[in-house]
Design a protein that fits this description.
Keywords: Lyase. InterPro entries: UbiD, UbiD-like_C, UbiD-like_N, UbiD_Rift_dom. It comes from Bordetella genomosp. 11. Belongs to the UbiD family. The chain is α+β, with helices and mostly antiparallel strands. The chain folds into two domains: 289 residues, Pnp Oxidase, Chain A; 105 residues, UbiD C-terminal domain-like (3-Layer(aba) Sandwich). It has twelve helices and 23 strands. Strands 5, 6, 7, 8, 9, 10, 11, 14 and 17 form a nine-stranded antiparallel sheet that branches. Helix 4 packs across helix 9. The two termini are 44 Å apart.
């Protein structure tokens, strides 16, 4: 569906949902869809075509929404920019964050209703998504915590298994939240956290920014919105949360406590194992009047795009610092929005694509494969990238392979080296991966038109509507065979 690009970004979740509904991009699901599997199944079938709004999932009075960020064009629309300007706009926001603005006590929409002794499993409609998931999971919860040393906040989205009414397990990958927790644990302290569910689309996008430690992603959200983000102080800690969020769970990650979590279907479209994970004790839940619960179907477009677009913006900026000829990048959906990177390069020297490949591997450890193509190849079209590999790449000349590098711990192929039948892999051996780079660029100099891409003059500009007679028909039996 073609939609006009707004002049200003969408800074409110409900305004964005209303926009989707008004333009035929919101499916309202009749009552009765079960929270166990059916909500996820319906949302997955609609993925990338329509968001799904469940009025009373499983008979629960709180509605559930999913898939409202499941197309790249929708995300650009929410940002108020053309799709071609998405990465540049995100990069500008990341480079010029705006300090947040605290709203007065008692005025935050996210604290209109307070539950001081909450039962999360009864209060919230938390779905069970995939076949072998070990129970209901919060998948769209932004986890906000403060660095115990500096006090600066970090925002991330972590999977959270709801074990009981006041107890949840969380996966902490070796990133900033994990560093905060280890520091608190070293001090014998719990780490206070706030889990925000139902944020506006730009704050969700900002939460996935790849930034150095001690950079508050909520300030990037403000820059994306073009105004300081309104925030509210939590009731049980000094953490600040988006004031207009739908739901906030306040709690603590307990020090020196681990409980079983998983299996869970993750973004690579495989299950991560059941392991002992960190535990959140729930202290308080606040929410708006008549809140909406947001769930992300794992490994589907909303999940993949929320992770890939911020990474693309960061990777593009990183590569352009050393290689001004890099004009675009794309983390392919076939590579689960994390592992396979396509780079568009204006090549000026032989060997340059290999340097770009090595630079990309150093930019983020998740990247497993890099394909560098020329300016005449659209990196967002996987068929064009495959065409470049098919016609401009020779494995004995253009292939780069690096063994034994750090990769994603959620890539199941990285655990093979630990030995068949191994029940667990030691932490220091998790995620060991080979990296592969493909130089699919043409030579800088070549004979006549041997590497010139075939095109027909005017093919892109021609107005088909002015040439096709929409009401005309042809009787081929009456056509003369002269």
């Amino acid at each position: 569906m073609t939609t006009s690009t707004p002049a200003t970004p969408y800074t409110d979740l409900r305004a964005w949902l209303n926009n989707l509904a008004a333009t035929g991009r919101m499916a309202v699901i009749r009552d009765g869809a079960a929270l166990e599997h059916e909500v996820a199944a319906i949302a997955k079938r609609l993925d990338g075509r329509q968001a799904a709004y469940f009025k009373q999932p499983g008979g629960h009075p709180m509605p559930v929404v999913s898939g409202f960020m499941s197309r790249r064009a929708w995300i650009a629309e929410a940002m108020g920019v053309p799709e071609s300007g998405l990465l540049a706009a995100y990069r500008r926001a990341a480079e010029a964050p705006l300090p947040c603005e605290e709203v007065p006590a008692g005025q935050a929409a996210c604290q209109q209703v307070v539950h001081r002794d909450p039962d999360v499993r009864a209060l919230l409609p938390v779905p069970t998504h995939s076949e072998h998931d070990n129970g209901p999971y919060i998948t769209a919860g932004m986890v906000i915590a403060r660095n115990p040393v500096t006090g600066v906040q970090n925002v991330s989205i972590n999977r959270i298994q709801v074990h009981a009414g006041d107890r949840m397990a969380i996966l902490l990958l070796p990133r900033h939240l994990h560093a905060f927790y280890k520091e608190a644990e070293k001090r014998g302290q719990d780490l206070s956290v706030a889990i925000v569910i139902g944020a506006d689309p730009l704050t969700l996008l900002a939460s996935q920014a790849i930034m150095p430690i001690d950079h508050d992603e909520l300030e990037i959200a403000g820059a994306l919105q073009g105004r300081p983000l309104p925030v509210a102080r939590c009731m049980t800690s000094d953490i600040h949360v988006p004031a207009d969020a739908e739901i906030v769970i306040e709690g603590r990650i307990l020090h020196d406590v681990r409980e079983a979590e998983g299996p869970f279907g993750e973004f690579p479209r495989y299950y991560s194992a059941r392991e002992q994970r960190e535990v959140i004790a729930v202290d308080l839940v606040t929410h708006r009047r008549d809140p909406v619960f947001h769930t992300i179907v794992p490994a589907e477009m909303e999940h993949l795009l929320l992770g890939s677009i911020p990474r693309e913006a960061t990777l593009l900026a990183h590569l352009q610092r050393s290689f001004p000829g890099v004009s675009d990048v794309h983390l392919s959906i076939g590579g689960v929005g994390r592992y396979h990177l396509f780079v568009r390069l204006r090549k000026t020297h032989e060997g340059q694509p290999k340097n770009v490949i090595l630079c990309a591997f150093g930019a983020h450890y998740d990247i497993k494969q890099v394909v560098v193509v020329d300016e005449d190849v659209e990196v967002h079209d996987p068929r064009q990238v495959e065409w470049a590999v098919a016609t401009r790449f020779q494995a004995d000349r253009d292939l780069v392979v690096i063994s034994g590098a750090q990769g994603s711990v959620l890539d199941p192929s990285t655990t093979v080296a630990a030995g068949a039948g191994a029940d667990t892999v030691p932490a220091h051996l998790q995620g060991i991966s080979a990296k592969m780079g493909l130089d699919a660029t043409r030579p800088v100099s070549y004979h006549e038109h041997v590497f010139t891409k075939v095109r027909i003059p005017g093919e892109e500009e021609i107005d088909l509507g002015s040439w096709i007679e929409t009401d005309a028909g042809v009787d081929f039996n009456a056509v003369s065979d002269r």
